[in-house]
């Protein structure tokens, strides 16, 4: 076969498995995927979606040659089923339950000092992880995250005359940049179309109602747990201004706005997002020559 021919089949290096654990007093069977080796990069998906959003990161040899990338589906999401008795309750994600399941998952896999990267609701959740458990986390990278995000918790997706499997992904699609490749934008839409009834709404309860870190940013110790926050300029749910306010309130936090990208950077335009991620990873870990980088240099990023 010549070097220009495409192979008829290719098996990816990504491995998917299940782990059984107990979190917040309930048995959970959680699906996760991983690839690579080295320091752990633990990836948390957005509201109403699942870990497929990180497939490009999991398949990037430039990343996996240096890091063990792990991404899991929250209970009620993707390939992780709801816990027993789910049909008897209203799904509303709380900060306590969210923090607990991330910590319990990390403990079940014995992930030591993982660097946690989360997007959207998870971009805010990583700040709460850093505030509560800085000693357990190597660093946090929040995408489209802020101290407080308003306006996302809505009841309309529960109406019987609304097709949530079309309306929810279409609503979230407006958060992406028009420059992002159509194939990737359509993929984000598709993943959102497969969420369970009421799950997106229940996630936004945490995002817009339960979590409010305004006035508490000083409680995050960035010496113990470095904090990086990045938000796309086309994001109108968590705006660059919201993220800038968080950076200003958290002593030592770094980051800013990413040009030509929206709310789902790792999924809607991975090549562009990677140009912002690599400088952060290089700062957190020695480069290939074993030298520590002196400063964060994010090309195309506005620093706060």
TrEMBL record:
User: What Pfam families does the annotation carry?
Assistant: Abhydrolase_1
Alphabetically list the UniProt keywords: Hydrolase, Plasmid
All copies of the AB hydrolase-1 domain together span 39-157
Q: Among its keywords, does the record have Hydrolase?
A: yes
Listed InterPro entries: AB_hydrolase_1 (IPR000073), AB_hydrolase_fold (IPR029058), Carboxylesterase_BioH (IPR050228)
Which GO molecular function annotations are given, in alphabetical order? hydrolase activity
**Top-level taxonomic group:** Bacteria
What PANTHER family has UniProt attached to this entry?
HYDROLASE ALPHA/BETA FOLD FAMILY, PEROXISOMAL MEMBRANE PROTEIN LPX1
Its name, as the record gives it, is Alpha/beta hydrolase
Name the species this protein comes from.
Arthrobacter sp. K5
